[in-house]
Design brief:
Structural class: alpha+beta
Helix content: 10-25%
CATH topology: HIT family, subunit A
Number of domains: 1
Strand content: 15-25%
Number of strands: 5
Strand order of the largest sheet: 1-2-3-5-4
Largest sheet: 5 strands, antiparallel
Bound molecules: adenosine monophosphate
CATH superfamily: HIT-like
């Protein structure tokens, strides 16, 4: 936990978020600025700066399974969805606590911007 990290503060409940699901390794909550009808962030409970600094495969696996669970909860299984981890400057990462975006409820474009 770092006090300066907004996602750590969400994990610890000191700032509000709309929780969708959780497991031992992570929590999932709605993005405050949704880019699709369903836009959920999946983050580790521990402070990990980005995918580039992730080392725990069990933790990463649990986060991806949590993303799949969120997709089921959101009813996106049949229509499909996208999972994205913006990483570092060129990746467009703005919050430096590892997170997966789960986006669904509309058709996605490729390549991404
Ligand atoms: P990224 O640009 O990939 O680092 O994504 C950061 C995401 O966090 C953005 O989509 C923001 O809208 C979202 N975000 C920032 N602060 C909050 C918050 N307090 N609650 C929910 N989502 C947030």
């Amino acid at each position: 936990m770092t006090d300066a990290c907004i996602f750590c503060r969400i994990v610890h409940g000191t700032i509000p978020a709309t929780l969708v699901a959780s497991n031992a390794h992570g929590i999932a909550f709605r993005d405050v600025n949704p880019q699709a009808p369903s836009h959920v962030l999946i983050i580790p409970r521990r402070h990990v700066r980005s995918l580039a600094e992730a080392t725990d495969g069990a933790e990463l696996g649990a986060l991806l399974l949590l993303a799949a669970e969120v997709a089921r909860v959101e009813g996106l299984d049949a229509s499909g969805y996208r999972v994205v981890a913006n990483t570092g400057m060129d990746g467009g990462q703005t919050v430096h606590h590892l997170h997966f975006h789960l986006l669904g409820g509309r058709s996605m474009q490729w390549p991404p911007g």
